[in-house]
Hints:
8-stranded antiparallel β-barrel
Amino acid sequence: MCAFVPDRLLGTALLAVTAAAPAFAERLPIDGAYGNAEGCEFHRTGRIVSDMQLLLTPDEVSSFASACDGLTLAGDKDGVLEVDGLCREEGESGAVKTRFTISRNPDATYMVNFDELSVWGPLGKCP
């Protein structure tokens, strides 16, 4: 037997389910792939041509020996993106949650800053 549920009760039930659902993390506002020549070659072909490769996409930032994926936007301070990712280093087991920044230069290249000593870039738009 089906019970009649008034529209206002159904709406309240849907609102409760929506409020209880986890929020989806915001994707990075990066329009494609950016990298150095080696990183763009890797993005285009999947072929590693040098241990100098650096690549940034909305989903991942990677080099020859390290990568961070599962990228989510943690904040945006004056155009500098604060990003959380799960980062792995070659030879290490497991991933470490890491916060880093991504900034866009006036010439439309990007810089990835893990700390004062580890800065990747400038990374240009891949063809």
